[in-house]
Amino acid sequence: MLTYHMEHRNSESRYYYIYKMIKKDIQEGKLKKGEKLPSKRALAEHLGVSLITVENAYQMLKEEGYIEARERSGNYVCEIHAMSRVQEPDRQLHMLPEQEKSAAGVGEEVSDFPYSLYFKTVRSVITTYGKKLMQRSPNEGCAILRNSIAAYLQRYRGVFAQPDQIIIGSGAEHLYGTVVRILGRDKVYGIEEPSYHQIRNVYEGMGAVCETLAMGTDGIKSELLKTTAADVLHVTPFHSYPSGVTATIGKRYEYLKWAGQDGRMIVEDDFDSEFFMPGKPVETLFMLDDSSLVIYINTFSKSLSPSVRMGYMILPRRLLGAYYETSGSFSCTVPVLEQYALAEFINKGYFEQHLSRVRRKRM
What we know:
Blueprint: H1 14-27, H2 40-47, H3 51-63, E1 67-70, E2 74-77, H4 115-129, H5 143-157, E3 166-169, H6 172-183, E4 188-193, H7 197-205, E5 209-214, H8 222-227, E6 232-235, H9 249-259, E7 265-269, H10 285-288, E8 294-299, H11 300-303, E9 311-314, H12 320-326, H13 336-347, H14 350-362
Parallel strand pairs: 4-5, 4-6, 6-7, 7-8
Antiparallel strand pairs: 1-2, 3-9, 8-9
Helix pairs in contact: 1-3, 2-3, 4-13, 5-13, 6-7, 6-12
């Protein structure tokens, strides 16, 4: 029987604590492939929690591929090939100074988006910052927004990145083009089949070659990963569009293992990830990566509204020099007013409140 001390869970929810502890035991090999977990009812009674608490924990583990349900039998531990973890990095955010430097010479409408609150935030920003909003944005985006995104990602998503690794752009397509400028047009870009059509359009429009890789039930088929000529893999591990496939934890480690050879890279497109269910999000490739192999891209078009043409990418620190060499001279395409308004919207907690309302509605 799994024995966890519920009083040690700090402020986190009961189901997330159970999920986290079981996942840790699987990753460390304490729970081995094929081992049967206690029934949900038995574990609930043993830990003194509700049945729904254990159901939610098991559901998260199944969604991430740590366990599998066998009909009329129970839940069993899956095989994963976790990569060795290096020493945890410093998790102290180093905020950028918000005195801005002068810049050099797929989603559907979210019907319950709080427009009145957002426009109230815009008016507040105009009153507070005035003429400052008429300045040009730094090429990589305003520090106030990059700081806000970094803090939000650490707080709400468990994704750690320093603000100076975050680049602001006007939506995903703009950032796809930036990726090609950084990594090169001479690379072969492997993309999911099927996938969002603009991914291929942008890459080929930038002069790069694309290779399509068919999807299985848990992500790109393993046999295709072994034979592809791709140098860069563009994947959408969470709810890939239009297939709806979410990559299991085993598949995510398979992607990272693939990227650990011959200077390969992964572009992680995380456009739908804010609407994870239930509880905490599935671990991103960026979170699992210890070798600076992943460029992370997300957009606010899905989580807020398609009219919010704003996205961001997180670059491994070793690629920041390449960004400024190839793309740093381009002006940021997002107006300063919109950047400051979104930063305020995030800082006030309104963005997370909105996400919580939408997620509850979908449950």
